[in-house]
Amino acid sequence: MAAAAASRLLRRALTPAVARRRFSTAAVAAETPPSPLPSATGEEDAGMVSMKGVRISGRPLYLDMQATTPVDPRVLDAMLPFYLSRFGNPHSRTHLYGWESESAVEAARASVAALVAADPKEIFFTSGATESNNISVKGLMRFHRARKRHVVTTQTEHKCVLDSCRHLQQEGFEVTYLPVRPDGLVDLDHLADAIRPDTGLVSVMAVNNEIGVVQPLEEIGRLCREKGAVFHTDAAQALGKIPIDVEKMGIGLMSLSGHKIYGPKGVGALYVRRRPRVRIEPQMNGGGQERGIRSGTVPTPLVVGMGAACEIAMKEMDYDSRRISALQERLLNGIRAKLDGVVVNGSLEHRYPGNLNLSFAFVEGESLLMGLKEVAVSSGSACTSASLEPSYVLRALGVDEDMAHTSIRFGIGRFTTEAEIDKAIELTVRQVEKLREMSPLYEMVKEGIDIKSIQWAQH
Amino acid sequence: MLRAAGRRFLRLGSEHRAPTVAVAARGYHERVVDHYDNPRNVGSFDKNDPSVGTGLVGAPACGDVMKLQIKVDDATGKIVDACFKTFGCGSAIASSSVATEWVKGKHMEEVLSIKNTEIAKHLSLPPVKLHCSMLAEDAIKAAVKDYEAKKAKLAAGNAETTQTVKVATA
């Protein structure tokens, strides 16, 4: 009898846990699915979330709106029918599925155009702002390669613009990377000097993703019009947040992104001026969709999502802007009330309020992020980038190298609440104080030693 | 006895999740997080105390500065206490914290043989963070060197304390 019990025990032990359960749909539905990726073991027990060696009680507060935004539920409502029932290809000309899909795409196009005061014929859908930037920079210059050989851009542009320019340099074009002032804004006189008769494109982003500064688009547009260069702006972070008017701002090309305005990821748009016509060479060849500018099936659900997001942004831009400004003030004042040595990176006046990039003196960015595991924010510190270089944007601002290592970017959005801001203040202050206790630099400053006078031993 | 053995078998059988070696491709090892959350030996000794050696290495421009101090028993040459302060990422903090733990109770010559690879292995540092452990090794050496320099100076009868902060080169 003992042998029977033992053999039963042994059999139970040796059969895998999954096989032991009885096969029924209820059991399968109730079973928690195993983690699909072997490298990211995320287990949840009693509300605790554990991932990558970090245990926190619940999901972190999301304050990284510049990286991406949650999809607005109203946008998702608009998108779903186009996945489930109205799933036709908008280029199918022969049946209802195609026709209704096409009309949805055109309606979305009109919504996007309305938000930037453009004509719907000037909006082309792409896979995102990165693709739009690529088409703008490379497409325009390659079309005009005979007469226009020069591009002007700034040092704080998004990587995709800078990389496209570098690619053009390899093709034989010349590129001027303009420095910016310490407050992040481009110097208009330097810009005027840099534009030459053979300058085809001037590319200056509207709102910077790292520091949030808003460039003087109207002035830049006027300058470009006078000098006969096309003005391209990467408005991924600006769409729906600051008012954009392509006529007033003299914009010739503009890149837009869906997932920065509470829309879906994987879609963006490109604005191409028709009067006077801006000519570009398509970078995606194929069936000639999107008037030949960008071949490929237009993803109806994503495009409908972007259109819905733009419509909502048009209605709610003012309200959001006021609310987010108030939250930004709350955050900055809350932190400044309890900590000294807090520096705002980039101009505070010419800034989109939802982006607050702060440097905390004597505290390193990655260690601060490690302590702020209950708040999702990002940093411009070297350790958080793959290379050990601090953020190139902060360096372009002329921020001291030791301060470039200490920056944290807080992103406030439509769904951020006061309670989240208060909690973020509390956690940030606590972590900064703890790290300053641990910091030899803080200790030296308290003793009255001037850190800049020390000769550091290089590695 | 059989039941206990069976229970052990059962526990073995139920572990069909991925192994709990928390070395993800770009995550922190548990030990690094532990040293960060509960740092050991954070603090400062009096710089001018003759039995204290101070090692200050790194540069703010690189994003890493470590100050490691050791308190040495003059008679035996043993390190009786150690403390640290670090400006740097989580791995740098953990490396210096580990360094202070390891030097306590050891002889000065012994600690000179602590290698950065041992610290890195203990914390499972990824390749991009190896320089943090290198800095910790340098900090230990610098602290020992500083103590010996102080001892030599005292022995030479020179009791003048330097005004400017000098950084010991590793």
Automatic annotation (TrEMBL), chain A:
GO terms in the biological process aspect are: [2Fe-2S] cluster assembly
**EC numbers for this chain:** 2.8.1.7
- Tell me which GO cellular component terms the UniProt record holds: L-cysteine desulfurase complex; mitochondrion
Q: Cofactor(s) for this protein? A: pyridoxal 5'-phosphate
Question: Record keywords: Iron included?
Answer: yes
The UniProt keywords, alphabetically, are: Iron, Iron-sulfur, Metal-binding, Pyridoxal phosphate, Transferase
Output one GO MF annotation: iron-sulfur cluster binding
Query: What InterPro entries does the database record attribute to this sequence?
Result: Aminotrans_V_dom, Aminotrans_V_PyrdxlP_BS, Cys_deSase_IscS, Cysteine_dSase, PyrdxlP-dep_Trfase, PyrdxlP-dep_Trfase_major, PyrdxlP-dep_Trfase_small
HAMAP family, alphabetically? Cys_desulf_IscS (MF_00331)
Concerning PANTHER family, the annotation shows: CYSTEINE DESULFURASE, CYSTEINE DESULFURYLASE FAMILY MEMBER
- Sequence similarity: Belongs to the class-V pyridoxal-phosphate-dependent aminotransferase family. NifS/IscS subfamily.
The name under which this protein is listed is cysteine desulfurase
TrEMBL record, chain B:
Q: Which Gene3D superfamilies match?
A: 3.90.1010.10
Which cofactor(s) are needed, names only?
[2Fe-2S] cluster
Keyword annotations for this protein, in alphabetical order, are: 2Fe-2S, Iron, Iron-sulfur, Metal-binding, Mitochondrion, Transit peptide
The entry's cellular-component GO terms read:
mitochondrial matrix
InterPro entries, per this entry?
Answer: ISCU, NIF_FeS_clus_asmbl_NifU_N
Tell me where on the tree of life, at the top rank, the source sits.
Eukaryota
A Pfam family per the record: NifU_N
Q: Which purpose does this protein serve, as stated in its record?
A: Scaffold protein for the de novo synthesis of iron-sulfur (Fe-S) clusters within mitochondria, which is required for maturation of both mitochondrial and cytoplasmic [2Fe-2S] and [4Fe-4S] proteins.
Q: Which family does it belong to?
A: Belongs to the NifU family.
PANTHER family given in the database record: IRON-SULFUR CLUSTER ASSEMBLY ENZYME NIFU HOMOLOG
- This chain belongs to the protein called Iron-sulfur cluster assembly protein
Q: Which organism is it from?
A: Ensete ventricosum
